[in-house]
């Protein structure tokens, strides 16, 4: 989503988007494509703070390291983050499983010399043991630590930005009701550290930040829930129309719906 910073277009005024009407806003959001991880559609309609560390910039530095001869980007989405982080090492591959994203990533990355591999997100990855000096991922849906450790060369590094615990739970709980403790513990940094160490990796850096999000109209909510499908699993407009209408009224009367995302920067090393 667009940054909540001075160079971001200002949220649309109360006299523009909300007065378009519930049905028009929802129809517009339902018609918008959801492939890739380009969030420009949200400009003027929603904002999200960005982590202080600047993942794409840090990723570019690691890819440019002369010691990295082969790198792999897991669950690359539409390839937008990786495309902006070149140049790449001599061997650069990326994986993606969702067909619309796969087509987009191939169009974007193949001309840059990246081999885009189609395949399921579950192990085994179609690569040899110790094939990569660097494995990366931005917001992987699932982190398969043993498989990451397997494809890393001795001394190799896993560098990623993960979605942290309780991300956008304000929105999830609006539609689903209170979420239990087990769900709240998912993606907790301490749990991820333990899983990495159990797979034989050494966690060398781990930082977490909680970041403000604002949704300025119900269309932004619908588009977000269609695009980030794990927020409300199985979401459809028809199934949640009454709750959407309720939230539309709340936003119109009270202003933006505020939620929070959590992001964790992760760097783990396979011992040499």
Give a topology summary:
Elements: H1 22-31, E1 46-48, H2 55-63, E2 70-74, H3 80-83, E3 91-96, H4 99-109, E4 115-118, E5 132-138, H5 145-151, E6 152-163, H6 169-176, H7 181-185, H8 189-198, E7 202-215, H9 218-227, H10 241-254, E8 257-269
Parallel strand pairs: 2-3, 2-5, 3-4, 5-6
Antiparallel strand pairs: 1-7, 6-8, 7-8
Protein name: Methyltransferase type 11
Organism: Streptomyces wadayamensis
Pfam families: Methyltransf_11
SS-derived structural category: alpha/beta
Average pLDDT works out at 92
Which parts are unreliable, with pLDDT below 50 for 5 consecutive residues or more? 4-19
Order of secondary-structure elements: HEHEHEHEEHEHHHEHHE
How much of the sequence lies in strands comes to 15-25%
Straight-line N-to-C gap:
38 Å
CA-atom Rg in angstroms:
20 Å
Please provide a written account of the structure:
This protein has 272 residues and is an alpha/beta fold. The protein contains 10 helices and 8 strands. Helix 5 (145-151) links the parallel strand 5 and strand 6 (152-163). Helix 1 (22-31) runs parallel beside helix 9. The longest helix is centred in the last third of the chain and has 14 residues, at 241-254. The chain is globular.
